Each structure stands twice: as structure tokens, then as C-alpha cells.
Amino acid sequence: MGTFRQHIEVGSSEAGPFAPVEALVDTGATYTLLPRAVVAPLGVRPREREEFILAGGRMVEREIAIVVVRLDGRTRPTVCVIDDVAPNALLGTVTLEGFGLAVDPVNRRLIPAPKYLA
């Protein structure tokens, strides 16, 4: 098992423009994380700041925004964390769930996930 990357495109609206991103699929990340250098030129504007816990347990405050993610020809709005220092984009669980996808860690790919209506 291990990590893998997924090609996505991100934009500020469904009309675009979109920027290509190679995101590390991270089921430990609640939200998708994108570098400010990617989203700022697209016109993505932060909505507010929230606290997050890093993998080592340290608390940090980051800006969040709504972006549109395009993955395999489908688009969905999603919450993203805007980061100034992270070297990699992360594809988080909220975005994956929005697309109805789960992680197959053995084959390092995204697979359809069951979707439930209660």
C-alpha cells in the first residue's frame, strides 16, 4: 500500500478557467488543500480562516475557500484549504465523497463508492 497522485483541475467556477493539478490523495485530510499560487490566479478568494490539526498534532490556522474541482470529466464544488507553504496539493475526503469515490490503496486508484440516501 502507499500514496498516489490524481490529476484534477481546479477553478473558481464551473465556467472556468481551470488549472491542472497533480494532487496527492490523502484520506487523512478532511479537505482538499491547494497552494495559493494555484488558486489566486483563478480568482479564488478566501471566505474565512479555520484551525486545522497537522499530522504531527500541531494546530495551524489556514484560509478556506470554495473551488470547483474537475475529475474524470465531472465537476463538483468543494471546500479547499489555501496554503502558502505546503509543497503538494492534497485531495481530501470531503472532495472524494462529493464525487462518490473511495480509495483502493492496494491498486493505488480511486474507485466508485456506495452512495446512501437515508
Question: What does the model show?
Answer:
The chain is mainly beta and 118 residues long. It is 8% helix and 50% strand. The strands form two sheets. Strands 1, 2, 3, 4, 5, 6 and 7 form a seven-stranded mixed beta sheet that branches. Strands 8-9 form a two-stranded antiparallel sheet. The protein is globular.
Based on the coordinates given, report the CATH architecture: Beta Barrel
Q: What value does the Rg take, in angstroms?
A: 14 Å
* Largest sheet report: 7 strands, mixed
Quickly name the level 1 CATH class.
Mainly Beta
Q: Count every beta strand, where a strand is a DSSP E run of 2 or more residues.
A: 9
Helical/strand content category: mainly beta
Distance between the termini: 33 Å
What's the short story on this structure?
By secondary structure, the protein is mainly β. It has helices at residues 36-39, 93-98, and strands spanning 5-11, 18-25, 32-35, 48-53, 59-71, 74-83, 89-91, 101-104, 109-112.
Topology, please?
Layout: E1 5-11, E2 18-25, E3 32-35, H1 36-39, E4 48-53, E5 59-71, E6 74-83, E7 89-91, H2 93-98, E8 101-104, E9 109-112
Structure keywords:
globular; seven-stranded mixed sheet; two-stranded antiparallel sheet; mainly beta; Cathepsin D, subunit A, domain 1
